[in-house]
Amino acid sequence: MSLHSHSHQRPRGSVQTVRGNIHNHHDPAGHMHHRQRSSTTRLMLWALLFTVIFAVTEAVVGFWANSLALISDSGHMVSDALSLGLGSFAVWIGNRPPSQRHSYGLQRAEVIAALLNGMLLLAVIAAIVYEAISRIQSPHAVNALPVIGVAILGMILNGVNGLMLSRMEKGLNTRAAMIHVAGDFLGSVAALVAGLVVWFTGWMPIDPILSLVVASLMLYTTLRILNEAVHVLMEGVPDSVSLQEVGDKLLAIEGVQSVHDLHIWTLASGMLALSAHLEISSLDNWSQVLERTLKMLLDEHDIEHVTLQPEVHERG
């Protein structure tokens, strides 16, 4: 038994080949997917509206109270607004049907949006770190009471936004938006803690120090999103499946003699694709092999976009 993920040297002899393009995607599922994406767009727009309103409020109060924790969180919320706007646009454009130019449609717009959002977050993190270091060296007086009030309001708002995002269609784009919102929630917590410390102790450096803590947490999650987005765009094997494991299971299917040119990749968030060449003993039982293969890939690995090429090696 052999499994090759790329090239395969076929044995000498006559090889009979029949190409089969199996796209196991039914209309009911397609309509449900479309409804989920429409709901995702609507929820993202509501989250965008709430985020913009609060970002302006937080920026005004932050400058008035001279709180970097609030100002940095406001800046992060502005990036959130851009993220949600970009994400909403990506979901909308991803609903466009396949065309002669883009046979899979434009669903990868969501992956590109996640990549751009990650780069945007890196810029925000760099700005927060720069300003925080400056304020640690030269502490500024902070008006604690308005910081506490706005921070509590921010925690409530980001909790609502997080709840809305959790109801959206799961995918890389939505996860990137969730990281923005989670970062905002942590920013509000940091601002609340900073306000309380300043209120009770008068120790001003706590404000920029907590901003650095939030920036560090944001950096970790942002790098993960960027890594995953690049992995998808590079046609990498999804982390949720093992190429070797899938190959072994294909090889274990009755009637399959060998597997080669096996490839698994992500079309868009939550949409896995597979292509492979299967050498079988006879074309007479191809329909049974095909049925068992599709069922295994869908039930065990959630792969429904499948292209298989059966090959029969006639031994002389």
Brief rundown of the structure:
This protein is of the alpha+beta class and 316 residues long. It is built from eight helices and five strands.
Structural account:
It is a single chain. Strands 1, 2, 3, 4 and 5 form a five-stranded mixed β-sheet that branches. The chain has two domains: 14-25 and 238-314, Cation efflux protein, cytoplasmic domain (Alpha-Beta Plaits, 2-Layer Sandwich), CATH 3.30.70.1350; 33-233, Up-down Bundle (Alpha-lytic protease prodomain-like), CATH 1.20.1510.10. The two termini are 20 Å apart. It contains eight helices and five strands, in the order E-E-H-H-H-H-H-H-H-E-E-H-E. The protein has helices at 27-65, 68-94, 109-137, 144-166, 172-201, 206-233, 243-252, 286-301; strands at 14-17, 20-23, 256-268, 271-280, 303-314. Strand 4 (271-280), helix 8 (286-301) and strand 5 form a beta-alpha-beta unit. The chain is elongated, with a radius of gyration of 26 Å. The protein is of the alpha+beta class. Mean pLDDT is 77; it is low at 1-36. Helix 1 (27-65) packs antiparallel against helix 4 (144-166) and helix 2 packs antiparallel against helix 5 (172-201). The chain is 64% helix and 14% strand.
